[in-house]
Each structure stands twice: as C-alpha cells, then as structure tokens.
Specification:
The protein is α/β, with parallel strands linked by helices and about 160 residues long. It has helices spanning about 25-40, 65-80, 135-155, 155-160; strands at about 10-15, 45-50, 90, 110-115, 125-130. A 5-stranded mixed β-sheet has the order 2-1-3-5-4, with helices on both faces.
Length: about 160
C-alpha cells in the first residue's frame, strides 16, 4: 500500500470563546472535552482551540450566542475546507464530554451525520457533526454557513 492510500486519523475539531484566565468556564469545559477525547479517541487528531477574534458578525435579533455560534461555524468551515478528501472530521461543541470511544461511527455509511431533533423548530442540532470530507460534504458545509449568515442578518428568516 502506498502512503497516499493510508487513512489518516480522524480529526476532532472544537472551538470555544473565553478569556483563557483562571475561572473561565468555557476554557474549563474545553479542557474536559480535550481530556476525554484523548482518553476515548487516543489515535485521533484533537483540535480544541480558543477563538480570540473579535465578533466579525452581528445578529439581527441581537443575540450574542448567534454571533459566537456563527464564528464557530466559520472556523469549522475552515477546518473542513483545509482537510483532504477522505478525511474524517468530527465538528463538536467544546462544552461536550466524551464518555466512550467514537471510532465505530466511521464504520457506518454516511457522508455527513448529525443529530436530528423531531420536536422544535430547529431540527438540525449542530453540536455534533461527523463529516467524511469530499467535494459534496464541503459544499454542504459551505451552504450551511451561507444559510446561517442569512439567518444571522435577517431577523424574519431566522424567526420562520
């Protein structure tokens, strides 16, 4: 088998906002994710990063979490864009704890997997998204980002 045929380890990508100072709750939650990912996904590439950039977006509804989630989505989009075709990427909220190995998820046939909520008006739970990187999955993430930007800037679109 040639080197290019060897599958690279899955990538776990999480971003959070926080001060980086003692008592920073988001930093603490991110450290829990990083630790539990290392325990249960030891062969994965673990990327848990604090986003320091000032808000680049504004919410038409004035909701700060919409802004920070949009920045996180933009970062995730960059992770997927930079990945190679065939890479396996988990986009995950930094306020998550992993309680068991996740490697068996890649044995299932999918291009993109996410949690679906049957109840409520927002069926896509963007907190845990598994991606097999390909031109099609990159287009999905690009479209997800574009629709998110539309919701962010248009209060009526976001409400419906």
């Amino acid at each position: 088998m040639e080197d290019r045929d060897v599958m690279r380890p899955p990538i776990l990508a999480a971003a959070y906002f926080g001060t980086g100072q003692a008592g920073d709750q988001y930093g603490r939650l991110a450290r829990v994710l990083e630790y539990t990912a290392g325990v249960h996904c030891p062969d994965w590439t673990i990327r848990v990063e604090r986003l320091k950039a000032p808000p680049a977006f504004t919410s038409a509804l004035g909701v700060n979490s919409h802004v920070t989630n949009s920045q996180k989505l933009e970062w995730w989009r960059g992770v997927v864009a930079a990945a190679e075709d065939g890479d396996r990427v988990l986009l995950i909220d930094a306020a998550t704890m992993i309680t068991r190995p996740l490697a068996d998820v890649w044995d299932r046939p999918f291009d993109l997997a996410y949690t679906y909520r049957q109840e409520g008006r927002l069926p896509l739970n963007g907190g845990v998204v598994f991606v097999r990187v390909s031109p099609a999955s990159r287009r999905f993430v690009d479209r997800w980002f574009a629709v998110n930007q539309q919701f962010l800037s248009n209060a009526n679109d976001h409400r419906h």
